From TrEMBL, chain A:
<dbReference type="InterPro" id="IPR027417">
    <property type="entry name" value="P-loop_NTPase"/>
</dbReference>
<dbReference type="InterPro" id="IPR050683">
    <property type="entry name" value="Bact_Polysacc_Export_ATP-bd"/>
</dbReference>
<dbReference type="InterPro" id="IPR003593">
    <property type="entry name" value="AAA+_ATPase"/>
</dbReference>
<keyword id="KW-0813">Transport</keyword>
<feature type="domain" description="ABC transporter">
    <location>
        <begin position="48"/>
        <end position="269"/>
    </location>
</feature>
<comment type="similarity">
    <text>Belongs to the ABC transporter superfamily.</text>
</comment>
<dbReference type="Pfam" id="PF00005">
    <property type="entry name" value="ABC_tran"/>
</dbReference>
<keyword id="KW-0547">Nucleotide-binding</keyword>
<dbReference type="InterPro" id="IPR029439">
    <property type="entry name" value="Wzt_C"/>
</dbReference>
From TrEMBL, chain B:
<feature type="transmembrane region" description="Helical">
    <location>
        <begin position="51"/>
        <end position="72"/>
    </location>
</feature>
<keyword id="KW-0812">Transmembrane</keyword>
<protein>
    <recommendedName>
        <fullName>Transport permease protein</fullName>
    </recommendedName>
</protein>
<keyword id="KW-0472">Membrane</keyword>
<feature type="transmembrane region" description="Helical">
    <location>
        <begin position="160"/>
        <end position="183"/>
    </location>
</feature>
<comment type="similarity">
    <text>Belongs to the ABC-2 integral membrane protein family.</text>
</comment>
<keyword id="KW-0813">Transport</keyword>
<feature type="transmembrane region" description="Helical">
    <location>
        <begin position="126"/>
        <end position="154"/>
    </location>
</feature>
<dbReference type="InterPro" id="IPR047817">
    <property type="entry name" value="ABC2_TM_bact-type"/>
</dbReference>
Length: 427, 282
C-alpha cells in the first residue's frame, strides 16, 4: 500500500508579532505612564473586540509557511532541510496539531507522534523511573505500553543504576539518553522529529539514528528535520528544502541536498559593498565576498571537508602590477582570531591588482565544524591599509564527511586530518 | 466514516483554519491517562519538595479559622448556625473556601506553568488546568482530617446530610474551574491577569460567609448576596457537615448554582476559543 498519508494543500501559517515603537528610552515617568495607559487602552479595546493582541505598538504579520503543497506516502522517510527560520519547526508543529494552520489544509491518515524536543515535560524533582512514565504519557503512550517497554527503555538509556535518582542529579548526557530512549520507543503511525539529535554524544547519536532507521524501515512514515546531512542521507528516501516558508525543492535526497547547499537566494548573498564602518585609504575596496565550490558555483553553506574557494571581489582606483598585497581572511571566535589566512604567510604577497577583480583563497578540505563563523576582510597594498571590514561576512558551516569515513559527527571546532596507530611498548 | 480507529478504517484528521474539532471530547477521554499522570506529577512534586508545603496547606486554614472565631464569634458576637460551636462553623466554611481558592489559583497559573508542554506536544489543553485542581483537592482531604478531629473534640455528631458532602465538594471544584479556565486562557495572552487572582482570593474570603453564618445577612439581601457562587457552596457545606437543622436558603442556593453553571460555560467556551492559539503565544 503506497497510499498518501499526509497531504498539504496551500498550507500557510501566519504569526503576528508586535514591535515596540522606536522612540529611544523612556526619559520621564510621565512618558512611561502615558505609554502604559495607551497600551492598556489598546489591549482593552482589542479584548472587547475579540482581536488577537500581542505586546507592542505595531503589528506585523509574518508568514512562517506559505503555499506549502506536498504529499507523503505511507512508509516514506522524508528529510526536511532549510536555513534557520525557514519554517521547518512550524511545519512540524502544524502537522502535529500543536498549532493551527492559518491557510490551506492538511489531511493526515494515522496517529502522529511528535518529537520536537528531547525530554519534553521531564520534571527535575522526579526520579528516572517516574519521568519515563510521565514523558511517555506526554508523548502519547499508554501506561500499559510504557510498562511493556520499560526494561527496553532503561537498557537503551543505560541508566539502570540511577532509576530511582531524581533526574536533577543526572549528568546532561544521562538526561538526554533517558529522554531519547523514551521517545525512541514510540510506535506511532507517523513520527515527526525536529532537530533533536543535535544534543547528546556521538555514540548515542549513532544509536538513535540506528533506532530511527529501524523505525523508518518498519514501514512507518517519518518526517525528520536535521542539519546533519549524513543522517538525512542515511535515513531518508526523499527530502524537502524549505526556504522562507516555501517548498523550494522536494524530491530525491541528493537533488535536495545539492539544491540546499548551492542555492543562492538574494537575501543571503554576502555583500559588503555598502558598509560604511570600514578602515583604510580605500585605494581598493571590497565589493562582495563569495564562497564557491570547485566548479565555481556559489555556496550558501560549506560542508566540512569540502574544497572551498573564497573570493574577495574588489574595485581599485588603478591597476598595479606586482604590488605588495597583504590580503587576509580572519575568522574571529569570541573576540580572538581563530584562523588567519593571509597572502604574506602563504607566500603569495606579490600580486597584480586590477581595477575590477577578485582575490581568491583556496581552502582545501575545509576544516571547521558546523557553526557560523564571523570573518574579517582585510587588505593592504604596498604597506598601506586599503580596506578593512570587521564582521564582513559569515561562513555557515554544516558538518560533512571530513574524515572520509562516512560519518559526519564531528567534535570541537577545528578539524585536523590525522590517524591513530597502536604499537606494543617493548622497552 | 467509522469512528473506531481500527487498522482498516483509519483515523483521518483534517487540519484547517478555524475548523471545529469534532472529536474534542472523545480526544479528551482518550487522553485521560495523561490527565491522571499530570495530576499525579503535580501532587508528588508538591509533597516531595516540601513537607512544609503540606503542613502549610493544613495550618493556614486552621490559623485563619482561629482568627475568625475570635474576631467574628467573640469580639463581634455573631451567632453560629444552630447549636454548632462557632469554631466548627468557621472551619466547615474554611474547607470549601480553601478548596475553591487554591483550585482557582492553581488552575489560573497552570497554562503558563506548563508552557513547555504546550509548545511541544499536542493534547486537549483542558487537561492542564483540570489536572492541577487535583492538587488542591488532596490538600482539602488532608484538612478534612482536621475537621474530623475537631468534630471529635467538640463531640459533634454529623446528621444524615453528611452524605451530600461529595456533591458539595464537586460544586466547589466546578465553581473554581469556570473562572480558572477563563483566567488561565487570558493569562496566556495578557500576562497581567495573574495579578487578579490573589486579589479575588483575598477579597473573596471577606465577602463570602466564611467567618460568619450567612443567616446574619438581612433577609432582603440574601438573594443578591447569593450572586457570589461561593455563598451557595459554603452554605451547602455547612449544612452537610453541621446538620440538617440549618438548611441553606434555597432560592439563594439555586441562584448560586446558576452562577456556577454560567461561569463554567463561560470558562469552557472561552478556553476552547483561545486554545488553538496558545502554542503561538506562550
Ligand atoms: N510563536 C511564534 N511567534 C511569532 N513568530 C514565530 C513563532 N514561531 C516561529 N516564528 C517565526 O516563524 C519563522 C519560522 O520559524 P521556525 O519554524 O522556527 O524555523 P526553523 O525551524 O526552520 O528554524 C521564523 O521567522 C520565526 O521567527
Ligand atoms: Mg527549528
Amino acid at each position: 500500500m503506497s497510499d498518501i498519508v499526509i497531504k498539504a494543500e496551500q498550507l500557510g501559517k501566519k504569526y503576528i508579532i508586535g514591535h515596540q515603537r522606536e522612540n529611544g528610552r523612556y526619559t520621564a515617568l510621565r512618558d512611561v505612564l502615558m505609554q502604559n495607559a495607551r497600551s492598556v487602552w489598546n489591549k482593552t479595546r482589542d479584548l472587547v473586540q475579540g482581536k488577537p493582541i500581542v505586546q507592542g505598538d505595531t503589528l506585523e504579520e509574518v508568514w512562517a509557511l506559505k503555499d506549502v503543497n506536498f504529499e507523503i506516502r505511507r512508509g516514506e522517510a522524508v528529510g526536511i532541510i532549510g536555513r534557520n527560520g525557514a519554517g521547518k519547526s512550524t511545519l512540524l508543529k502544524v502537522l502535529s496539531r500543536i498549532t493551527e494552520p492559518s491557510a490551506g489544509r492538511v489531511s493526515i491518515r494515522g496517529r502522529v507522534a511528535s518529537l520536537l524536543e528531547v525530554g519534553t515535560g521531564f520534571h527535575p524533582e522526579l526520579t528516572g523511573r517516574e519521568n519515563i512514565y510521565l514523558n511517555g504519557a506526554i508523548l502519547g503512550m499508554t501506561r500499559l505500553e510504557i510498562k511493556r517497554k520499560f526494561d527496553e527503555i532503561v537498557a537503551f538509556a543505560e541508566v539502570e543504576k540511577f532509576l530511582d535518582t531524581p533526574v536533577k542529579r543526572y549528568s546532561s548526557g544521562m538526561y538526554v539518553r533517558l529522554a531519547f530512549a523514551v521517545a525512541a520507543h514510540l510506535e506511532p503511525e507517523i513520527l515527526v522529529v525536529d532537530e533533536v539529535l543535535a544534543v547528546g554524544d556521538s555514540a548515542f547519536q549513532k544509536k538513535c539514528l540506528g533506532k530511527m532507521g529501524d523505525v523508518a524501515h518498519e514501514g512507518r512514515t517519518v518526517l525528520f528535520v536535521s542539519h546533519n546531512m549524513v543522517a538525512i542521507e542515511q535515513l531518508c528516501q526523499k527530502a524537502m528544502v524549505l526556504q522562507q516558508g516555501k517548498v523550494a525543492d522536494y524530491g530525491s535526497v541528493e537533488q535536495a541536498l545539492g539544491m540546499y547547499l548551492t542555492s543562492v537566494s538574494d537575501l543571503q548573498k554576502v555583500s559588503i559593498a555598502d558598509r560604511t564602518d570600514r578602515r583604510g585609504n580605500q585605494f581598493l575596496r571590497f565589493t562582495r565576498v563569495a564562497l564557491c565550490d570547485a566548479g565555481g558555483s556559489e555556496l550558501e553553506q560549506v560542508l566540512s571537508g569540502q574544497d572551498v574557494y573564497v573570493r574577495f571581489y574588489y574595485a581599485a582606483s588603478e591597476q598595479l602590477c606586482d604590488a605588495r598585497v597583504h590580503v587576509s581572511l580572519a575568522i574571529v571566535d569570541r573576540g580572538r582570531i581563530l584562523i588567519n589566512l593571509n597572502s604574506y604567510n602563504s607566500g603569495s604577497a606579490v600580486l597584480d591588482v586590477y581595477e575590477r577583480g577578485f582575490f581568491e583563497c583556496v581552502w582545501k578540505n575545509f576544516n571547521l565544524t558546523a557553526g557560523s563563523y564571523d570573518c574579517i576582510a582585510f587588505c593592504s597594498v604596498n604597506d598601506e591599509v586599503a580596506d578593512w571590514v570587521d564582521s564582513a561576512f559569515t561562513i555557515l558551516v554544516e558538518n560533512g564527511d571530513f574524515f572520509g569515513q562516512g560519518d559526519s559527527t564531528l567534535h570541537g571546532i577545528v578539524l585536523v586530518p590525522h590517524r591513530w596507530y597502536s604499537h606494543p611498548d617493548l622497552s | 466514516m467509522h469512528n473506531t480507529p481500527t487498522k482498516q478504517t483509519e483515523h483521518l484528521l483534517i487540519l484547517e483554519p478555524g475548523r471545529a474539532d469534532k472529536n474534542y471530547w472523545r480526544d479528551l477521554w482518550r487522553y485521560r491517562e495523561l490527565f491522571l499522570i499530570l495530576a499525579w506529577r503535580d501532587v508528588s512534586v508538591r509533597y516531595k519538595q516540601t513537607i512544609i508545603g503540606l503542613a502549610w496547606a493544613v495550618i493556614r486554614p486552621f490559623l485563619t479559622m482561629i482568627v475568625f472565631t475570635i474576631i467574628f464569634g467573640r469580639v463581634a458576637g455573631l451567632p453560629s448556625d444552630g447549636n454548632a460551636p462557632y469554631a466548627l462553623m468557621v472551619f466547615a466554611a474554611m474547607l470549601p473556601w480553601t478548596l475553591f481558592s487554591s483550585a482557582l489559583s492553581e488552575a489560573s497559573n497552570s497554562l503558563i506553568g506548563n508552557a513547555n508542554l504546550i509548545s511541544k506536544v499536542y493534547f486537549p489543553r483542558l487537561i492542564i488546568p483540570t489536572a492541577t485542581v487535583v492538587t488542591a483537592f488532596i490538600d482539602f482531604l488532608i484538612s478534612f482530617v482536621i475537621l474530623v478531629g475537631m468534630m471529635i473534640w467538640y463531640q459533634y455528631a454529623p446528621s444524615w446530610s453528611i452524605v451530600l458532602l461529595p456533591g458539595f465538594m464537586l460544586l466547589a471544584l466546578l465553581a473554581s474551574l469556570g473562572p480558572g479556565l477563563w483566567i488561565t486562557a487570558l493569562n496566556v495572552k495578557y500576562r497581567d491577569f495573574r495579578y487578579i487572582i490573589p486579589f479575588v482570593v483575598q477579597f473573596g474570603l471577606y465577602v463570602s460567609p466564611v467567618g460568619f453564618s450567612s443567616n446574619v445577612i438581612p433577609e432582603q439581601w440574601r438573594l443578591v448576596y447569593s450572586l457570589n457562587p461561593m455563598v451557595g457552596v459554603i452554605d451547602g457545606f455547612r449544612w452537610a457537615i453541621l446538620g440538617a437543622d440549618s438548611p441553606p436558603y434555597w432560592p439563594g442556593f439555586a441562584l448560586s448554582l446558576l452562577v456556577v453553571a454560567f461561569f463554567l460555560w463561560l470558562g469552557i467556551s472561552q478556553f476552547r476559543k483561545m486554545e488553538k492559539s496558545f502554542a503561538d503565544m506562550i
